[in-house]
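Quick check before the chapter quiz. The format below is the same one you will see on the exam, so make sure you can read both the input and the output lines.
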Amino acid sequence: MFGFPADTGRDNALGSVLIPTRFVWPYGGRRVFLCGSFTGWSEHIPMSPMEGCPTVFQVIYSLSLGYHEYKFFVDGEWRHDEHQRFVSGNCGVVNTVFLAREPDMIPAIYSPGTPGRSNMDVDNDPFLRSEAVPRISEVDIEISRHRISVFLSMHTAYDLLPESGKVIVLDVNLPVKQAFHILYEQGIPVAPLWDCYKCQFVGVLSALDFILILRELGNHGSNLTEEELETHSISAWKEGKSHINKQVDGSGRSYPRCLIHSGPHDSLKDVTLKILQNKVATVPIIHSFSQDGSFPQLLHLASLSGILKCICRYFKHSSSSLPILQQPICSLPLGTWVPKIGESNGRPFAMLRSNASLNAALSLLVQAEVSSIPIVDDDDSLLDIYCRSDITALAKDRAYAQVCLEELSIHQALQLGQDSSSPYGFVSGQRCQMCLRSDPLHKVMERLANPGVRRLVIVEAGSKRVEGIVSLSDVFRFLLS
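Here is the expected output.
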C-alpha cells in the first residue's frame, strides 16, 4: 500500500479546460508511478518504459489550467526530478508545473539535453519532450481542412496514375476457386471484374467476398458445396448474393448496386468521397473513348493511401500552412479508442485473443464492418492483427477445403500465410503497423500513405498495450468533416 501526505491545496485551477501533459522519469527503475496534487496524492498513475529505451518511463495525464505539484514513486521510494523545477513544501520536495492559458509558453519538463537520458535514439525521439500538448483552436482546424479540401478539389485522378504499373482484372466467368488463387498469388486484396459479353467493367471482387463464401460453406444446409466452389463462377456468386449489394432509393425500392468508379478528370475530392460514402477500399479509374461509355480503359485503382500520399507530398515543404499536422493524435477527434473504465459511449472496440476461432474473427469483421482486428494477449498487448485480406491465405494448398472455421484458431490461420521455410512469429515483418497516442498527425499520415498500410494500431509505449486504432478512412473523415 502507498502512503503520502495530504493534499497541499495548491492545485489552483484556472478553468475546466484539460490539457494532455506528458511526464517523463528518465532515471530507470523497475516500477514507476506518477502522483500529484491533481490526483489528491491518492491515485498512483503507472508509467510505462519507452520502447527501445527501458530506462525512460512516460505517461500522459490531462491537467486543468493552473499550478500543480507532482512526484514519482520509484521501486517503493518517493523521488523527484532534480533537473526540473522543484520546491519544498508540506509534502517534502516536489516538482511543479504551471499550465497557463497559452500552452506554447509552458516550459518543458524534460528535454533531449537533460542529463541522465539514454543516448539511444527512439524514432528520432519525437515524444521524449515532457510538456503540455498545445491545444489547437477550432479556427486552425477549419483552416487546415479548408486548405486540404481546396487541394483535393484542384487536383484530379490523373495525379494518382503511376508512370508504369499493372492492374489485375478478372473475368466474371472465372471459377471462384481460381479467382481466390489469383488474388493470393498476386498478393492483392481486390480486383475489378470484366464482362466480355457486355464489354464493360461490372464490379469488384474483394476479400470480403471470400469471407462470405467461406462462411456460406461453413453453414449447415448451405446450397454452396465445396465441389461447387471448384466450378462456381464469379458472376454466379455475385448474382446469388445480389441482395447483399442492393441499394434502396427514396421510395424504398431496392436496386442492384452499380460499379463505383471515377474518370481521370474527376477531382481527388470526388474520388475520396466516393470511397468514404460507399465504404469501398478502391475506386477504379476508367477512361472511355466514346460518349456512350464503350471501349472503356482501366487506368488505375484509386485508394485512400494514394490520395494521402499526394497530400503529404504537396504539403511536405509547407507544413506550417496546416496547423493540425503537429498535433498529437490523442488531442484530435480521430480514430477508435478502447473505452476507459466506466465509459459506455463510443463505438465498441473489437479485439480477440490468438486462440479465438477463425470463424469468430470472420463474423466480427462482417458484423462490426471493420477491415482488421488486433490480436492481443491476456494483458491486451498487441501480438498480431487479422485483416480481411488475410483470408486469401486459405487459398494456399487449398487449405479452405481442409479446415473447419470453428476449429481453426486465428494463430493457426495466420500460420497458413507464412513461408513454410521460416518459423512463424507474431508481429513479423510489416504486418503490424503501430503508433503512439503522442505521435503527431503528420507522422501518422506519412505512415498511412505507404502502400498496403490501411490502419495503425495505437499502443502504449513499452507494453504495447492496445489503446486504439486509426485508419485511412478515419483520417479522411476528420480532414473533410
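If your answer matched, good. Confidence is low (pLDDT under 50) at residues 1-15, 102-132, 244-250, 420-429.
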